[in-house]
Amino acid sequence: MIKIAISSVKNFSDYTLPVLIPSLLESGIAAEDIYIFEGGHTERSVEDYNGSTLIKVAHNSFDLTALIDIAENEVESEYWFLMHCTCTVGPKFGELVKNIPEDKPDAVSLGVLHDSNYSNMNIGAYKYTFILENKDKLSALKSTDYSPEGVRASKHIALAAEDLLLSQHKNQRPYEPRYNPDLYEEFEAMVPNPFGGSAIRRMRYFGALDLYKYQANWGNPNHVLEL
Q: What are 52-80's pLDDT values in tens digits?
């Protein structure tokens, strides 16, 4: 059993979720298996979101918002697939994301972890027991300072902690393509922002999962915090 954990923040959700969620549903992911972890609130609450679960959390920890809440509140699933709200998926994603290697590793990456030019941006599948084992490490990265300075500092911390659990653990495997291997590819391109924001975004496509990630930060000394 694998469920989808989306890390988001309240200033983004109204723009990103109406783009991301339909793509997940169209790929075959059931609404009840989608959990949105929305940072930036003053207290934690759990709500319905068109058949999915919206958990509003009292911190904003960027990519790791979802994993932190899962660990601290023991939100259960055999595996959690962590993704950002600034992603979309293609029609093959629903099948491919369930392709956990038979040896049941603690984490399954996008497949480019050991490429010196790219990282996985924490995106990947994590075994629930592995998340719990790393609760203290994750909680240490939680940010509750919502001031502009605090948010920017938190972004720096999050970037420094990118792929923290993936890169420091030996029992990790990459996703492998299950459909035609000739279609397996990864590429990047500059594209219009699909979420309507003003930030220039670089699209990265990961063929092993039919997943698209739209990045606003790459080599930028002034980290983009706007949509």
A: 999 999 999 888 999 999 999 999 999 99
Token pair for 210? 């039919």
Q: Provide the 3-class DSSP secondary structure of residue 126.
A: strand
Dmax over Cα atoms in the chain, in whole Å? 48
- 207-to-2, 4, 14, 20, 49 alpha-carbon distances in Å: 19, 18, 27, 17, 29
Q: What is the pLDDT of residues 150-197, one digit of tens each?
A: 667 767 776 667 777 877 556 778 887 655 455 456 667 778 788 887
Domains along the sequence of the chain with CATH: 2-178 (3.90.550.10)
Compute the distance between CA of residue 143 and CA of residue 158 in angstroms, rounded to an integer: 10
pTM attached to this predicted model: 0.87
Contact status, residue 55 vs residue 39, Cβ threshold 8 Å: no
